[in-house]
Amino acid sequence: EEKISSLIQIRDVCEELHDWAKALKVHQELLETKDTTCDDWRRLGILQRRTEQVGAARLSYEKALELASTLEDKALVEISQAGMYFQLGDWEKALALLKVASPQEDETKIECFRDQGLVLRTMDRNQEALESYANAVQLATDSETRIGLRMDMADMHAALKQTEEALELYNAIVDECPHDPALQSILHHKIGR
After folding, report:
1. Helix 38-50 crosses helix 20-33 at what angle (to 10 degrees)?
2. CB of 98 within 8 A of CB of 119?
3. Is the separation of the CB atoms in 152 and 126 below 8 Å?
4. N-term to C-term CA, the chain
5. Tens-level pLDDT at each residue, the chain (193 residues)
6. Coil, helix or strand at residue 136
7. 116 with 95: CB under 8 angstroms?
């Protein structure tokens, strides 16, 4: 039990440092020392993907799906698989997985909508991307997540030369967070306030 706890801590630190190869090695050692869960295999797939082991990641995600006992588990695996296909440039497959995922928790729904927005944006399906981001914003309860999503939307409007929409969002963000000088500075530069 102590060894498992120690390995989890080491893996988590490696992930925070973006040392994916070391995190993968520690996670694999962890899997050898305990009964595995859906999340263990999903996490293995993510680490394999981040170390360019896409074939192995695909197999890990399949194992995770076999062990998924809830719709939430299944949705989290599908979102991770979508990330793999996005990384491979198969945007249609990534989008299809994100659209069939049925997350139950708002945090996972937000992740799913945000990722759909990213994929759609990459595919130049900008209006659909904005709708996905807007769906995520509606679910976001914490200010940081909401601001990040709205900032993505505003930047997207700006890139599409939709100045009025971009300014409206930038101004709303400025008004929402008057006590964050760094963000205020960035936004004032963007909108010329």
Report:
1. 150
2. yes
3. no
4. 56
5. 899 999 999 999 999 999 999 999 999 999 999 889 999 999 999 999 999 999 999 999 999 999 999 999 999 999 999 999 999 999 999 999 999 998 999 999 999 999 999 999 999 999 999 999 999 999 999 888 888 898 899 989 988 889 899 888 888 887 877 677 776 677 667 666 5
6. helix
7. yes
Report the candidate in 27, 36, 39 with the shortest Cα–Cα distance to residue 70: 39
Task: Write down the pTM of the prediction.
Answer: 0.84
- Matching residue, tokens 């869960």: 37
Give the tokens for residue 19: 């040392």
Coil/strand/helix, residue 152: helix
Q: Are 47 and 24 in contact (CB under 8 A)?
A: yes
To 5 degrees, how large is the angle CA 104–CA 108–CA 112?
A: 110
Task: Kindly calculate the radius of gyration of the chain based on its CA atoms and give it in whole angstroms.
Answer: 19
Measured CA to CA, the distance from residue 172 to residue 146 in angstroms comes to: 11
CA atoms within 13 A on the CB side of 172: 15
How many residues are listed for the chain in this entry?
A: 193
For residue 152, CA distances in Å to 43, 120, 139, 161 come to: 27, 13, 16, 14
